[in-house]
Amino acid sequence: MTTVRQRRVGKGTEAAEDLPSEETNVKPDGKIPPVPPGGKLWNILSVTVGGIVAISVGLLTSVYVATLHENDLWFSNIKEVEREISFRTECGLYYSYYKQMIQAASIQQGLHGLVYDNKTESVRTINILERMNVYQEVFLSILYRILPIQQYLEPVYFYIYTLFGLQAVYVIALYVTSWLLSGTWLSGLLAACWYITNRVDTTRVEFTIPLRENWALPFFAVQIAAITYLLKTHLQPAQERFTLVAVFIATFLFSLTWQFNQFMMLIQALAFFILDCLDMLPTAKVTWLYIIQISGLLLVCVLQFFNSMILGSLLISFNVSVLIARTIQKNLKKGGLLNRLGKLILHVLLVLCLTLLINKFIKKILNLESDEHIFKFLKAKFGFGATRDFDANLYLCEEAFGLLPINTFSRLSSTLLFYIYGFVLFLLTVAAVIVAFRNLRGSNQVQLKEKVKEYTVTLKPDAAYSLVHTVLFGCLALSTMRMKYLWTSHMCVFASFGLCSAEVWKPILKCLHLYTSQRTQVIKYSIPIITLLYISFKFWPGIMDELSELREFYDPDTVELMNWIKSNTPNTAVFAGSMQLLAGVKLCTGRTLTNHPHYEDKNLRERTKQIYQIYAKRSPSDVYGILRSFGTDYVILEDSICYERRHSRGCRLRDLLDVANGHIMDGLGENEPDLKPSSYPRFCEEIKKNLPSYTMHFTRVFQNKTFHVYKLAKHK
Predict the structure, then answer these.
(1) Cα 97 to the chain's mean position, in Å?
(2) DSSP string, 419-432
(3) Where is the composition biased (Basic residues) (predicted)?
(4) Which of 105, 563, 623, 684 could in theory staple to 642 by disulfide, Cβ–Cβ 3.0 to 4.6 A?
């Protein structure tokens, strides 16, 4: 088990509106008036200062998380094997391909080794570039090889510094999004400060560096910033084209770097669909966004050697269905309230039916089953029947896939973020309902546009998108804790935008009969400044203490295991064990694996369940036969799994295996009536007794306090 221990002693604010609001900058005839010379100079100065602050805050965030990583592990002082062990579970698997490319004799040989890989899954040759999103590791390894930096920078540092650098891009994108929404860079500064002070809930990059989301989320944030700008009114054609290109590039990079991209973009597409149906976004721009999502995903599909999981994604089926349904229902946005509501219900039903039909057709043609575990998990999670499916229960029992813990909200509230977010969310939701009802009721669009300026309540397209985006991703985060990082980062943007926006304060002051333009300006700047001062005074000392706390990586048992494997087993040896540990075995030793943590393949899931019979109640001959069928030479047993106490009864790995095998679980508690006692004891416990029935198949060759390694006999 990896731990960290205490390290041994040894070795200004801006208070003027930056971007003029769209409403005050447009004449009734729709033309944009010329900006006075003084105002233009002020805008240039303000944008320059805001840009400098954005870059500075982004770089400081990057340095901050890099320092935390160094202080937590003493990364610069520990051995290479310890550095690699610190990349736990799937992180180690992804980093191993970067290491493999670096160590290859040439770039061509490195790529050939990935396309025809026979070490990640024994007795199988798989295409890593098709199965996994590792193009970023390929690109980075090639960059490292061609740049003249080898003698100055170790490969591991080039890798982690790139990820920490992407955090700067992430924070700058959040800053710019908030700035675009509110019209002032003060909002962006507040968003960045909230992101940093709520770091526990906004990112985990400092301890899960190679994780796919740490590559993808910065590009997702850039995409959201570009969409926010695209939804501004009165863009010039050249500006619109440039922004569409930016959206496409960001969407493509996001899709390329994370296997869950299709599910995140499906939620985004739902946001576009809802707003388009309610006439709150320009239909032409929404159409382009649908097309960009499809084309970006298809380009990734080509690069991943026509990965069938991408072709069978719900996103492609949904977007195609929306475009078809819109063609069929051409008069969707005409008529009175009841007429439009009827058409809207039919439209939603048509899109839903077409999506399911197209998706089922594609999966039938491609014989696609790679993502079935996700739907089994969702079905069980939301109570649509109990399941004994091993894969679904494996997800259900993990804390990361459970509901968002209540203490998350207390942490977010300590920085005032959650309180302000709730306040802004309530106000803009009320505004959205009013605007949506008004849009559905108004049949004469020309008259409606003439009356917009008379209404107290309005909602700009970019703010409307931000609202629906945060609501949908909030629902995702509440249901699945692992996805909270998609919500909390945007929460910082949304709350800061609301606090600095006249769009929020103006209707409040009008309702209280206190509205004046000057009073609105004073409030929209004074309250954010007070909030920034509060955050600074409360959290600055804690951040300084955190940066001064020095600890050290400490996992001697795993280090001993990896060193033994490298010294005492042949390079061609095949190892079986838990998928989390085997990722480290591949990275640290280069040995062949039977299974690994990248779970998006049906054959691998079935293989993993079979390998895990080492923790079930099975006979030694059964386990031996299973392991040898996958070419296993050595099996690693972990006491932390065999005698697991981290999970409660029913969620321990051995319990999941017992239920899947139809056996009664260990310990006190209820069992389902059709479960039967096993004829055999638990393999991982019984093998340690060195009984003849076990020693004829397995010989213990290594053990320490955590791990037991057995060599399999090679019977004829």
Answers:
(1) 21
(2) HHHHHHHHHHHHHH
(3) 1-10
(4) 684
Q: What is the pLDDT of residue 14?
A: 36
Give the list of residues 6+ apart from residue 349 with CB closer than 8 angstroms, or none. none
Q: What are the b/e assignments for 96-107, b being 16+ CB within 10 Å?
A: bbbbbbbebeee
CATH 3.40.50 fits 556-712, yes or no: yes
Note the pLDDT tens digit of each residue in 561-583: 999 999 999 999 999 999 999 99
Q: Helix crossing, 37-73 with 517-548: angle to 10°?
A: 20
DSSP letters for 667-699: SSS---TT-B--SS--HHHHGGG--HHHHTTEE
Q: Are strands 634-638 and 574-576 parallel, antiparallel or unpaired?
A: parallel
Give yes or no for a contact between 711 and 627, defined as CB atoms under 8 angstroms apart: no
CA distances for 354 relative to 265, 625, 657, angstroms: 18, 47, 38
The 3-class secondary structure across 512-537, one letter per residue, is CCCCCHHHHHHHHHHHHHHHHHHHHH
Residues of the chain with pLDDT below 70 are 1-38, 370, 383, 385-386, 443-456, 716
CA 299 – CA 264 distance, rounded (Å): 17
Start-to-end CA distance of the chain, whole Å, equals: 37
What is the rounded distance in angstroms from the CA atom of residue 483 to the CA atom of residue 457? 33
pTM for this entry = 0.91
- Report strand pairing: 707-712 vs 592-593: unpaired
Residue in the block written with tokens 């949304």? 494
Query: What are the φ/ψ torsions at residue 571 (nearest 5 degrees)?
Result: -60, -25
Q: Which residue has the tokens 């990057």?
A: 62
Alpha-carbon torsion, ordered 9, 87, 159, 196, to 10 deg: -70
Length of the chain: 716
Domain with CATH 3.40.50 in the chain: 556-712
Closest CA to 233 of 272, 180, 185: 180
- Of the candidates 548, 575, 549, 541, the one whose C-alpha atom is nearest the C-alpha of residue 561 is 575
Contacts of 16 (CB under 8 A, 6+ apart): 42, 46, 525
Q: Cα dist. 613→330, 627, 640, 674 in Å?
A: 57, 9, 16, 20
> How far apart are alpha carbons 262 and 317 in whole angstroms?
11
59 contacts: CB under 8 Å, gap ≥ 6: 168
